[in-house]
Amino acid sequence: MSLIPHKPIRLARHYMDHNYTAPITIEDVSREVALSPYYLIRSFRHVYRQTPHQYLVEKRIARAKELLRNSELSITEICVAVGYESLGSFSTLFRKVAGISPSSYRINSQPTLTPGYIPLCVCLLHGLENQPEL
């Protein structure tokens, strides 16, 4: 039988899922679930194999990636939208997690506009008339 109280740990995760856009701290989360910050960190790591801070960073960077791919927001606006107050901290964490800077991620995630090569046999088979130059 485990001595870890799973319900407060799930509530902590739920709280972070719904408030990751705000600059929350471990004290905020621990106050919300009525556990000490140290006990919360240990218990959260035991249950989810990562600290609350690691979970929050992962959640924020995942949302930032989504916004970089699918929005026209500036990187500074995305930084604020996912709960960071400092562009430098956001960029450093993004690079650490994603391996590239936010601007490089945005450039690399854009779809390429160059048409793909369609072999002549496929064009003939499917009746495609506007074939690219061969």
What does this molecule look like?
The chain is an all-alpha fold and 134 residues long. It has two domains: 1-49; 59-133, Orthogonal Bundle (Arc Repressor Mutant, subunit A). 65% of the residues lie in helices and 0% in strands. The protein is built from eight helices and no strands. It has helices at 6-19, 26-33, 37-48, 52-70, 75-81, 87-98, 102-109, 120-126. Helix 1 (6-19) crosses helix 2, helix 1 (6-19) packs parallel to helix 4 and helix 4 packs across helix 7 (102-109). The N and C termini lie far apart (69 Å). 18% of the residues are buried. The mean pLDDT is 87.
What's the overall geometry?
elongated
Number of helices: 8
At the fourth level of CATH, the homologous superfamily of the largest domain is Homeodomain-like
What would CATH call the class of the largest domain? Answer: Mainly Alpha
| Beta-strand residue fraction | under 5%
Characterize the biggest β-sheet.
Answer: none
CATH topology of the largest domain: Arc Repressor Mutant, subunit A
